[in-house]
Amino acid sequence: MRDLIESALKGHNADYIEIRIEDTETTNISFLGRELDSIGHSTGKGGNVRACVKGGWGFASFNDLDSIRSKVEQAISQARMVGNEKTELAEAAPVIAIVPPHIISDPADVPLSEKHRIMEEYLDLLWGGPEIQTSSLRYSDGHRRMFYGNSQGTYIEQARIDVNFWASAVARNGGDIQQASISMGSLGDFGLIHRMQSEVAELPHKALEFLAAPQVQGGEYTVVLDPVLAGVFVHEAFGHLSEADHVYENPKLREVMVMGRRFGGEHLNIVDGAKIPDLRGSYQYDEEGVEAQRTDLIREGVLVGRLHSRETAAKMGEKPSGNARAIGYQHPPIVRMTNTIIEPGEATLDDLLEGIKEGVYCKNWYGGMTSMEQFTFSAGETYMIRDGKIAETVRPVMLSGNVFSTLENLDGVGNDLEMNEGGGCGKGGQSPLPVSNGSPHIRLRNCLVGGA
Amino acid sequence: MLEDLLTQALKQADQAEIFQVSSLSTPISFEANRLKSVEARDSSGVALRIIKNGRIGFSSTTDMSDMDGLVARAVEMLPFGAKTSMNFPAASEYADVVTFDQVTSDLKVEALVEAGSKLIDKLHADWPDIVWSAGVSKSVSSTTLLNSNGCHAEETTSAIGIGMEGTLVKDTDMLFVFEGQSTCRPTIDTDAIIASIERKLNWAEHVAPPPTGSIPVIFTPNAVADLLLEPLLEGFNGRNIVQSSSPLIEKLGTLVLDPRLSVWDDPTLPFISGSGAFDGEGIPSSRLPLIKQGVIANFIYDLQTAAQAGARSTGNAHRGLGSQPSPDTSVIVIDPGDTLFADMIAGYPKALLVESFLGAGQGNTLGGDFSANVLLGYAVENGKIIGRVKDTMVAGNVYTILKDIEALGSELEWVDGSLRTPAISCTGVSVSSKA
Q: Which of A213, A207, A230, A225 is nearest to A360 (CA)?
């Protein structure tokens, strides 16, 4: 593969060329209700060429590897159509590396019959409890081998193994339907599939509990988030804004996102980095061949860093951070988060709840989205807080806030950091990208809660 | 080659089906008011589905040199595969549904770049404070479907799409406007796009306090697509019918929604993205009523869910390369009402008008619930739009709010290329905001 890539890179007239070739293999099993819905095993082979000429980008993706040389020509001629400025890419030392995948327990070593059997055990857990209307259970694993070379002398082979698990229980009472779900993933660890029993067994109980629960009255509340949902919160409420591609060509936003700007109190510290090991967003080199790092984004409440590709770093006069990622060879790399974390403080959960007369406690997650200024995220479970104690269950809520004011209202940081490794991130038509996020329990004042 | 693959697969199965796709798309993007990149995405692959002893095996690949592996992997799945009583369809007569346009197919990248540049330059000249980005894309895709019961269907589709977004930043106050069109033919009306953007920006010029409580909400066609459509249509999906997890089960033939509401799935409309002569399993397309004057008329099925429900496939199998077919809607058209959009607004002393939402589709959509943040919406006071709202959320249930709607618009708009709807105004939506 190295010969193929290196020879295809030679003899062209462009400021920068990179080639990525991938081999993928995925297995998935899904049950809908008590019955198997689908089981499949798919393979893929393909690649892309990205070229830059005078600051303009061309990109060509393909499945037919024999066409690689003509695709290089195509990407360059497209880049030429665009470029009329200067190519600016931050320095990245050329690297030659072969990186083995991070493996704790390889799903490829487990026969399909065994994966199927384990899923049937989970099915028994979903259906062995109180009566539910239906359930959904999904497992997938994927092995992605990447071969990357660029015209500046870098050649990297990397591989990653992803394991994903999702389960939900649906309860119904006439036209009224509620569901409880859980999502989990890992980088290279099939063992995760053996550790979900208690969470899955709880789902039918939760779905029925939601069905019996009232809806919260919409409005502003003091909200306490568990570590999992607080992880989703930091991803949506701040993480996306720290991606430099949203900022670097918008002069007004650059003024707003100036280093040193205060976003929150001194207890607030946020980091992101693929170099933080063993998590779903971990890797050694990003998809421009830049080594992964650990980037401080907020230190003691103040903006100190952001996430970059080589281009955004050069244009902002900052250092590349190794955050250029793509979900697959069909897409060019864009600036993405990896593992995003609110660092723990000293408060216990009781400290955070103390003094809240009427508030909302949210656990687990369902989804989240951001517009840069506003963000929303939804809880998997919601409880009222009354007189400093977690009280009755209400139906799961959606929360919403303003990126610039909500972090100021984050007035309590717990001591119990946990990582959330479920779901995936979507941006620019590329979804789901494996990321993780994490946080201790946190408290938000004046948080907008949607409801009746 | 595909016939050989079919023969090879049939040696180890009772029935076999081959689905082959190839597509070439050229997305062009403009960022920060200027051309940023030109791409060409060339993809192809083949999927094999087999049935043996009432079980399904499935595999797909983009590696056309690995047909033996494709068959072996599908066969490997058979012992665990989903149980089925479906049969792949025999050859059918298909209606002539035109989704290919030679002019679109022949469009050069340079022409797309020029069209996009013109639009971006105009937007930038008219609104220099706004940072504009845009995407222009052309694609041509071919599908071949072949099965052992005699079906052999082929279709080529062309598509052209344009979308743009403007971001206006004033310190930490941000305004986002979007506009887009997509069709099979190069009939995109850039004047209409610019007029619509101008209208939105005028309404959004001032920030107004949001009306809150249980107040009337007017959904523009885009807002109908953003918030109401997904929870509503989920109830018609054969997968949810088979699982009895749809609130509409046992409601077929009964009046559930406002009698003014009629909704169709119509993939037979020519030159519409989402249209086609046959579905992902070779079943002929048809114009299917989902809601007829408020009455639940049909659910949507593919072969497998139809077999499970004891129904017939409605020709709604949708599929990508890497996954098995699943029922989904194709082209949704909602019949118009008789209220002009301007009259809808003029009728209210206090209401919320919404153009787009952030975070719709999270939460309990299966039960018809919705909850979302208003990304672009306006306060209406004494029949007039007084400005855009911020920090505002809406929540409610589609079945409740569409049971007794206030007004149904008489003007129809295409949204995202495959939904045609009027504006709808409803009561019973809960609107909350920061104090």
A: A225
